[in-house]
Design a protein that fits this description.
18% of the residues lie in helices and 35% in strands. The chain has a domain of 67 residues: 2-Layer Sandwich (Alpha-Beta Plaits), CATH 3.30.70.2330.
């Protein structure tokens, strides 16, 4: 899976290593997207974000308590501008709690 926004995090990407374990971090205060999910090194350094088209689904998954293994699979691009490809594996999916419908008849 590719991520977005890497151009803003080049120094952090240069310090990272292929095979490194990463994590997803919710960023609900993000002014551009309340569903934003950062891709971070375990030290807390941001490498980029999950694309907005997937962020809402990922946000719901993380809020539910699902757990993921996230690995930096590949650093792409040139020495001047790196991109990042991550491998994501679902480790644990929590059940979705559904609200009961009201059965009151009027």
């Amino acid at each position: 899976m590719g991520i977005v926004g890497e151009t803003h995090y080049q120094a952090q990407i240069r310090r990272s290593s292929e095979g490194e374990t990463l994590e997803f971090v919710r960023e609900p205060e993000n002014q551009h997207d309340g569903d934003a999910v950062k891709v971070c090194r375990l030290s807390g350094e941001t490498l980029g974000y999950i694309a907005a088209v997937r962020a809402g689904e990922m946000t719901r998954s993380l809020e539910r308590g699902d757990r993921y293994e996230v690995i930096l699979a590949e650093k792409t691009g040139s020495t001047a501008c790196h991109g990042v490809v991550i491998h994501v594996r679902l480790l644990e999916r929590k059940p979705t709690v559904r609200k009961k419908r009201s059965t009151t008849n009027h």
